[in-house]
């Protein structure tokens, strides 16, 4: 009886199916419906490379608006409606009204002023062309400051200063055209930074200080100190259990095409480049100091020459350690302020965070490199000038 009822239900269901539709057609029909729906709402995939950027100037402040912040009602949100004129590109001369939100305080420091140059981006949203104010235009100011710096260096140091600027350009070129592309292609950050650092040390120091024995002593001291510092850095990073996640940028690197990059190697490579910048100063100055002491009195013994060189080097270490620490603190000051305001968190917990630990380790490794470089350079220079100085010292 139960079987008969089941067969009757199946028979009635078959009668309900239209005769001109086969059993295989519903999936295809459903697919067609889904495709039509997709086509109806399909928007061309956004590609940041299609964005256009324009320089523009603010021609009029149309309105200034104060609203309550939706996320933090106690804070008043300030925005401006401004008229801007595009200054370049296919839309040069065109004016448009755009909104700009400088911040939540509205204290006037970040407000746009009439005549101020800005950057406008043209992009697409849901298939429509839209424009946004993204930043102020700063390139002109930076170029003028760079020109001032170059003139200052050339005026006080002459041809040596010009060579040092060429060396700086070479350093930037190595970073932009070798180190960055190599890492993006999947190369080991540590090996890439090491090779790039060696190239920078060998070429840029010679470009800046000339091809002479004093510079050769500085380069040799730099390479020896760099090798020792790399060993210290590898040990410190592993011992402190650091993985290169101490900055916000590290999280962005893990997304997209750069997700496979070794962040610990990237951290180590950054430390190597930072050490190089410090070693250039210390080794060249210390080699020059020992040479000048020898020139002043070429009858000094090796021991006395070393002693006087180290006396100057100790003062150099004291000043540079403080300078290096202040440089790192200055670069991460907003982060320090943020942690300082988090009074609910114990100090030892704050210091234990990788963000803070990373900066501390950078400072300590850089300072250690300074301390190591001074005696190495002093002993090498003193030995050379004591043994060969009478016949070979650079004039």
UniProtKB/TrEMBL annotation:
Origin superkingdom: Bacteria
Spans traversing the lipid bilayer: 142-159, 166-184, 190-208, 217-239, 259-279, 317-340, 360-386
Pfam families, alphabetized: YibE_F (PF07907)
Signal peptide: 1-23
Key words, A-Z: Membrane, Signal, Transmembrane, Transmembrane helix
The protein, known as: YibE/F family protein
Source organism of the structure: Candidatus Buchananbacteria bacterium RIFCSPHIGHO2_01_FULL_44_11
